[in-house]
Design a protein that fits this description.
single chain, mainly alpha, flat
């Protein structure tokens, strides 16, 4: 007996609730472990290391709010916990949507989860290890000698999260292109035609989401353009048509049709021979 639409909708909501609960529990467990070791303060020091290295010797960051020294390290710890739990969260998302997909779509699930996680973390790592050091040194080199830079830790966290999101999503360009090609939304030829428009768009996005300096804008726009080319290359590989296979039912029908035609020909020949014998007693 088929399930009623209302019951099916409620069951999907229950499953969605369970998936979200499992994801939140995973983040909470990882965050608890990070609070025990190395601790929120040490995690924030690691995050702030690119800026503190660029500041004048003896200069430290400041906390303007009353509870800012407590809340900001906890926010950083929660962000790190989310990043570490991201593969499990993506698996929960995939487990929720997979039953409604076709078999050829399901085969893309695990590769997409792995590649998406790897590229997002690669974008964050590229931003932390390369972009931050160059940007902060470039900005502090323009600071007047009459002032002492003392950035606020909450403003720094907001800036870092914006940059991490920008570079993490920018590095997802190949995954997005492959999905669009596999879903037949666009073709590889169209992606090649749109290359010049994407380059312009990449520099526009870099100018909007990054600080107003040439270093960070180039550091975001150039990798996006290179990743677009990588996405075209991978899309061309995955969009190659597979060797044509004749379904078993079609093959059986073809074989049956051939046998039937052969039997009809033999029967016609037998009837013709019988008529000849009848005409010549």
């Amino acid at each position: 007996m088929s399930e009623a639409p209302e019951d099916s909708f409620i069951s999907h909501l229950v499953e969605l609730r369970d998936r979200l609960l499992h994801s939140l529990i995973a983040i909470a467990v990882v965050m608890g472990a990070l609070c025990l070791y190395p601790g929120p303060g040490e995690i924030y020091d690691i995050l702030a290391a690119p800026l503190t290295r660029a500041l004048p010797e003896g200069t430290k960051m400041v906390a303007i709010g009353v509870i800012t020294p407590f809340m900001v390290p906890l926010k950083v710890t929660a962000m790190v916990a989310f990043v570490l739990a991201l593969p499990y969260i993506l698996f929960q998302v995939w487990a929720f949507v997979a039953p409604g997909l076709y078999a050829h779509e399901k085969r893309l699930g695990i590769p997409l989860i792995i590649s998406s996680t790897f590229l997002f973390l690669s974008g964050m790592a590229f931003c932390y290890f390369f972009v931050f050091g160059q940007v902060f040194s470039f900005i502090n080199s323009f600071a007047p000698k009459s002032i002492t830079p003392a950035p606020d830790i909450e403003a720094y966290l907001s800036f870092v999260m914006t940059m991490f999101m920008a570079f993490g999503l920018a590095f997802e360009v190949p995954v997005a292109l492959v999905m669009l090609v596999k879903l037949n939304v666009v073709t590889v030829e169209k992606l090649k035609e749109w290359r010049s428009y994407f380059i312009v768009g990449a520099f526009v996005v870099a100018a909007v989401v990054t600080p107003p300096d040439v270093v960070s804008q180039l550091a975001l726009a150039i990798p996006m353009c290179l990743l677009y080319e990588l996405g075209i290359l991978v899309s061309r590989m995955v969009s190659r048509p597979a060797p044509e296979e004749v379904p078993e039912a079609t093959a059986a029908a073809t074989a049956g049709a051939g046998n039937s035609a052969s039997m009809d020909a033999e029967m016609d020949k037998a009837e013709e021979d019988f008529r000849k014998l009848s005409d010549h007693p």
